[in-house]
Structure formats: C-alpha cells, structure tokens
Amino acid sequence: MTTIDDAEFPKACLDAAGEYGRRSEVVAVALGGSRSTGLADPESDFDLYVYTRSELDLGVRTEIARASSIRAEVDNRFWEPGDEWHDQSGVHLDVMFRSMGWIEDRLVQVLDRHEASVGYSTCFWANVLHARVLFDRDGWFARLQERARAPYPDELRSAIIAKNWPILRSTLSSYRHQLERAVDRGDLVSIQHRVSAALASYFDIVFALNRQPHPGEKRLIDWVEAQCPLRPVRCREQVEALLSAAGSGGPMAIAAFHAVMDDLDSVLAAEGFSAPGVHRHSPSVNSSGTAVAHAALWTADLERSRAFYERYFGARAGALYRSKRRAFTSYFLEFPAGGRVELMQSPEEPEYGWAHLALSLGSRQRVDELTARLAAEGVRVRSGPRQTGDGYYESMVEDPDGNELEITA
Fold first, then answer.
1. Could you tell me if 129 and 248 lie in one domain?
2. Are residues 146 and 161 in the same domain?
3. Which of the listed residues 222, 237, 270 is the one where a domain comes to its end?
4. Is residue 326 situated within a structural domain?
5. Which tens digits make up the pLDDT trace of 177-197?
6. 296 and 209 inside one domain
C-alpha cells in the first residue's frame, strides 16, 4: 500500500486521503487539477480524485466532509459526483468520486480505440498522467499511470484533427457559419458561446498536433506556449484579439475568427494534413504571399442573385451585411471547389456589373507598405488604408486600365 506524507500537501488533503483510505471501497486517492501540474495560484482549490471499487456510502462521505469544515456540500452531481468543502485552515477541497472501471475505460477510449471528442478529447488521460498519488492500496493507480505514460497514438492524433477541424469552418453547421448568423442578428450571448466552442476545438487540435494530452480548461495559452512547438506563431495575440472582438458583437469578431483559423490551417498544412473543405478566409495563395480574396459584383436584386448562385453553383452565403454608414448590403458567397464572390447592392451604385477584384496580402503591415509604394510610384489610391464596417482592413487602388483593386489584409 502506497501513502504519501509530504509537507508540500496541506494537512487537510492528507487527512482526507487518509480517511478515505480507511474505507475498503476506496482503492486510490490522487491530487489532480492545477495543483498537480504546477499551474496553480494561491487561490486554487485542491482537487482530490477518489477511486472506488464500489460506491462509497453517503453517510461516510458526509462524516468526512464535515469533520473539519466550516462549510460543506455533499453529493454534488452537477458534473462528476463529488463533495466540496472549506476546512477551518482555509483550504478548499473539491472531491470527485470515480469508479475504477470508468476511468480505465477513459484511457482505453483514447489509447486503444482512438476515439476523439468535440473538444477536450484527452483531458481525462492528462488528468491521470499528471496526478499526484496520495493513497494507493495495492498499486492499482501506479499501474494506471504507467498505462497513461504510453506514447501518443498517431491514430488518435489524426482522429482528433479529423473530428474538430471541419466544424471550425467547413461544415454546413460550422462554428464559422453559426458565428456569422449570431453577428448578423446582434446576438451577443450566442457570439460568446460559439467563439468558446470553436476555441475548445482549436485547442484540442493544437494539443493533438503536438501529441500532448489536453490539460483541461485553465491557462491554455500558457500551456501551449510552454509545451507545443507546433502552434500558430501568433496564438496568444490572435486568440486574445478574437475574445476581445467577440465582446463587441460586430463584424470584427468574424475577421478575428478567420485570422485565428487561417494560422491554424497553415500549421496543419505544414504538417501534411489536408484541409477538410473550402473554408480559408483568403484562398488561392501563390508563392509571393498574395492571394485572390474575392471578386465583387453589383446586383439589382441581392436575394435573387444569392439564390441563383446557391441553386446552380452550390454556393454558400455568409451572413447578410448592412452598412451603418450608407445604403449598402452584401453577401459573401463561397463555392465548393474554392473561390469567393461578393454580391453587392446599393441605390447609389450601378444596378449590375463588375465592381472590383480583392487581393489579400496577409497582414495590415503589407497593406500599409504596398499602398504607400503604389502612391509613391504614381498609382491612384482611391481610399485607405482603413478598417471597414464588415471587418476588413483595406485600400482601394486602380490598375493601369482604371479597374478597381481592393487590397486587403
């Protein structure tokens, strides 16, 4: 039987582990969460995982929880079954009860069956892997941890990416399309919800790509920067920008979302993964780094034109955009095999015809630099650089024949 008596653990943890260990139903007690990974702060609670061969009597649990607590909650069932209390020394204990078979199957699910989830695919694996044992009756938990030290299966890595990548931007009900609709209706709660869900899949992919079991929900950017060399270069900057933009509820949230996902796509492509469909915000990138972003057309009837391209060419329309500055509405259409068209309508503009070609340079800095160069060399710059109402950073210039070119980031 293994027990720990270590000064690094509060007395409340050791006492609780000892009391649980006295019960024959209990086979192991382990410390998990941020206290076991070195990412805790002074306010972090202590997560104890009690592993049992049969259910522990509720009366016994109540007795242990209330023995030295100033406030206790017993038989919480909001997430995992558990008890929670503050002891008289100020330590906050959060105790969760798991059966041996249940946690063993969580490891089989990922290490043997290679089953992915939508977000957090391997967090139970990580929980076991990083746990600190406080009590282990017959070495069962030590054997479980040894199993958890297995190499990251390539099949699991691929399965997680295959399950989470398409729902970011490719499928009909992707987070991208849900976010566009939420922005269109000004639904701040839905915007936050969809961004959070998308980031859960984003981080699941990043951890899988680096063969790292998912550490859970806290300090994910710190963990990525410390443990994941295969990551978007601007991970922290872009994720924080997306979260900030989501709070505004405007089109900038969509642009920030695409910036996050474009960089993730680039990392995955560099590792040899094939894109799950047409979804990149700036497709058709050539060797110079410039991309054909979209072509734009004026139309006399926006809905009629949208329906035409959807019916006959399989286009997928994004959210309807309405300018707050002038009478202007538009749709962006994406086509199954690639390419985007912007359909535009305004009483101030032609009823139909060619409008402009948009070229993406990949960054604001390149837009600024090229605009300045064009102006210095005598090319007409009609407007910009500027941030548009629908979330783009752009300049409008003319080619030698007077055709409009929209230069975007």
1. no
2. no
3. 270
4. yes
5. 899 889 888 899 999 999 999
6. no
Number of H helices, E strands in the chain: 15, 16
- Domain of residue 48: give its range: 2-150
- Same structural domain, 161 and 180: yes
- Asked if residue 400 has pLDDT above 70, the reply is no
Identity of the residue numbered 197: A
Indicate the DSSP class of residue 166. Answer: H
N- to C-terminal Cα distance for the chain?
62
Structural domain count of the chain? 3
Single-letter amino acid, residue 91:
V
Sign of the C-alpha dihedral computed for residues 31, 34, 39 and 41 taken in this order: negative
Residue type, position 92, single letter: H
pTM: 0.66
**Residue keyed to tokens 């699910």:** 109
Rounded Cα–Cα distance for residues 401 and 392 (Å): 25
Q: What is the per-residue pLDDT for 279? A: 44
Q: Are residues 77 and 170 in the same domain?
A: no
Q: Cα(284)–Cα(301) distance, rounded to whole angstroms? A: 29
In angstroms, the CA 334 to CA 162 distance is 22
Per-residue pLDDT tens for 43-90? 777 889 999 999 999 999 899 888 888 888 888 888 889 988 888 888
CB atoms within 10 A of CB 350: 13
Average pLDDT for residues 188-215, to the nearest whole number? 96
pLDDT tens for each residue of 133-178: 999 999 999 999 999 999 999 999 999 999 999 999 988 889 998 9
131 and 180 share a domain?
no
- Asked whether residue 90 is domain-assigned, the answer is yes
Question: Does 245 reside within a domain?
Answer: yes
Q: Determine if the peptide bond prior to 385 is cis (ω within 30°).
A: yes
Measure the CA–CA gap between 161 and 230, rounded to whole angstroms. 14
Of 215, 235, 270, the position where a domain reaches its end is 270
Dist CA 401 CA 234 (whole Å) = 38
**What's the confidence (pLDDT) of residue 171?**
87
Residue positions counted in the chain: 409
Pair (252, 388) in one structural domain: no
Q: Residue 164 has what DSSP assignment?
A: H
Q: What angle do CA 27, 32, 33 make, to 5 degrees?
A: 155
